[in-house]
Amino acid sequence: MSSELGDFLKARRGELSPAAAGLPDDGRRRVPGLRREEVALLASISPDYYTRLEQGRRRASEPVLHALARALRLNEDERAYLFELSGKDAGRPGRRPTQRVQPQLRRLLDDLTNTPALVLGRCTDILAWNEPAAALFTDFALLPQYARNFVRLVFCDPTVRALYVDWDYMARACVAQLRMEAARDPQDPRLTTLVGELSVRDPDFRTWWGDHRVAVRTSGTKALRHPVVGELALDWSTLTDTSDPDQQLIALTAAPGTPAHDALRLLGSVTARPPVSPRPVAGPAGRTPDTVDAGREVLPEA
Question: What region holds the HTH cro/C1-type domain (predicted)?
Answer without folding.
Answer: 33-79
